[in-house]
Give the backbone structure.
Amino acid sequence: MFWTSYFLAVLALVLAWPVPVLLSRAAWPARAPFTAMVLWQAIALAGGLSMIGAMLIYGLEPIGDNLIAGLRALAGMVFLNQPTTALGFWHLFALSAAALLSAHLVFTLLLTYVKIERQRRRHRELLALLASPSSDGPGTVVINHDSPVAYCLPGGARSVTVLSDGLMARLEPAELRAVLIHENAHLSQRHDLLLWAFAAWRQALPWFPTTRYAQLAVNSLIEMLADDVALRSESKATLIKAIALVAGGQAPSVSAARPAGGEGSVTGGFSTTGSFSATGGADSPRTTASRVSRLLSPEPPLKPAYRAMVLAASALLLAAPTALLIVPGLLG
Amino acid sequence: MASLGELERAVMDLLWAGQEAATANTLRDLLARDSEAGGGRAGHQGKDLAVTTVLTVLSRLEKKGLVERERGTRPHRYQAVSSREDHTAELMHEVLGSAPDREAVLARFIGSVTESEAATLRKLLGEL
């Protein structure tokens, strides 16, 4: 039991710091965004699992030879008032920490979902009143705004893609198609689920490097995945031009897009922008820059053999802690 | 019968266009007139539209924080909380701001870019 918890602790540590740092610096994810996405998910899941598993196994060590026997003995103590003298202070501490961390992760996941859904519902309500349907297809609406903006608001059957007047005025039909295909790819590939999970992951453990790196990487990888879908039907030059037109037209108008209410609301909006751009300025531009450079000087996709290796490593990453936790109990 | 969503939109359009607060009766008459002027497309629901339906729509809008009522008078008079432009600005603020928790709410075609990066992209555009 002891070496299992030791191994899981080391795995959790490695997945919390050096691995995400190295992966976030690696160049190959741009050549295989889907594979990289799978790896990030494996890192996050295996990281959480080994963190909780390490504490659980350590805490249960005195009362069971394996996880299942230990949990059974623990259940006896909790529900049947069996003597708890076998558990020392640090074992109880580890068990409490494991329980708290598990609850914290699940709770944050749910809370993040509720928050996101509430914002989306409010946004959808306003869109229903402000935007008008577009001729570009069902689920596409146009909003009266001068800066070139395109985004999608996920919501299952009520998903909607929003374009601004400013965008429609600036883009040629082919560029507009590229934008729409890009946004629809976000919706059809359910990128909202990834955004939700990794936003919750970061929210739950904000001081862990892995959660920040993972969220940044995922944000950028979904853009690459959506770009790749757009490239299937539109040319590279069209997509680059669309990106450049939207990015070039957007920046100056970010500050102009503050609510045009009284003086108070202008300054209020401005100060919040200041604090947002602290993160936005550091995170998002890299995404746009790496997208454009990826399109301008494309490198060949990662060789299938390497991709298979990464996928196998992801599977192993998940399988190892799971097996360590469960298999001894099944054998014993 | 038009859906509540369509009616909400029609009522907001009237309130945004009008200068002053309106009663449910006034709004009902305006909606009826609009649907007659709109010809067959909107159907005859304008004539059948009951004041209670308009009141339902108004209370839904009030709950959403889009409409406020003056309670001093009878019947109550309703007005938009803020202008259409302010609401659009609010939406765009939500879209263009880049708070971490907003990144999960919607997926933008382009995230926020710095001024220098926008300049680089504009230069690139000139070369394309």
Observations:
- The two ends of chain A are 12 Å apart (CA to CA).
